[in-house]
Write a structure and sequence with these properties.
This protein is α+β, with helices and mostly antiparallel strands and 381 residues long. Helix 5 packs across helix 7, helix 5 (236-249) crosses helix 8 (318-331) and helix 6 (253-267) packs across helix 7 (270-288). Strands 6-7-11-8-9-10 form a six-stranded antiparallel β-sheet, with helices on both faces. Strands 1-2-3-4-5 form a five-stranded antiparallel β-sheet. A three-stranded mixed β-sheet has the order 13-12-14, covered by helices on one side. A hairpin with a 3-residue loop joins strand 8 (165-175) and strand 9 (179-185). The chain has ten helices and 14 strands.
Amino acid sequence: MLVLFRKNKQRNDEESLENNDILALTSLVPLCNGQVRKDAFIIEDYDIYVYADVASLQDNVAQIVYQLHHEWLQEPIVESVAASGDTLVNAIHNAAQSFYEHILALYIEALTPGTIMHKERVVQDEYALYRSEINGVGRREGVLEGDFWDMLREDLLGYVRNDKVYWIRTFASKNKDNVICEVKINGKEISALSEKMIAYAEEWNCLDAYHTEKQGILLMKVDEQAQPFIEEVVDIKQVILQAIHSFDKCKSVEEYKAIRKQLLKQCNDESLAYEIFSMIPEFYCMYAYAKVEFKDAVYLVRKGEETKEVHKDQVSSYELVKDCVFEHLNNEMLSRDVIENVLQYSANAKAIQQALAQGNQMEELLLPGIGIRIPSNYKLK
């Protein structure tokens, strides 16, 4: 998807340069095998397109927003780069150099055959890991042992689902008054990880007025294209809503099993059918016990095997099923008996009811997440 920029930038006349955006692109030409065509820097060998938007030029400092487009990216990699120079032209050149070293070179490396240096196993898939050096501005005492990937690895892997590419941007800065940190995965900030970085940056003893550090991390799936579940069902929302209505009317074990059979038939995807079947009662529980805190974990349960924990964002159907359940419960005037009937199929509801019977208060309860019973050929999507 192409992100369009507004072109009404305001600059002083003395700071204005003609064709700044094109200069930001042509500055990449000496760095790698590509060429500028119209408004894009193109690397034909890898079908990479780079766009640039010079956001500001002031006091020999250039701020440029670069976009990297490639068919495997669900959203373009967007990076704002600031650099200084003894002239405005050199500032633009230096910004281009920073973008190349921090992002573009990393992506080219990932697309180059035979460059895999390290692999990470995420549930049933393997991802090749690429990471830039940590760079930034300013000085501080001490050095980081390892890098931001080493610091955040376990947390970051919890957000990997089944996409072909994950672009992870880590940034930390500190001055006299403020600490600002940000961790983004495919353009979306993960606040819990940003806060973890803040705890790290707060310990810096800066030797200059301010200090910054950033690192780019790229995870690229080793096998072929990702398989988004949404394309495998003609109208997945209608399938979920039909299953929800079936749960409302379910009066016996036989009817309960019939819901699963119907989902298997409609989805033509055993993994997706089991996700919907398992999650609907758990979201009824989440709705019914709104004062109970639920964490973001999903537990993949298979009889006779060790339960695997993943983050909810790794389960593509999670938010869709949740939205369907909550929309249904908000719009329909269901009796408490109907809701209680569905709750009998929720493991979390049983745990909450037992805790309440022992005298605990709802506000005191914390549940680690929800469980999904999975088939032997389950594939996380």
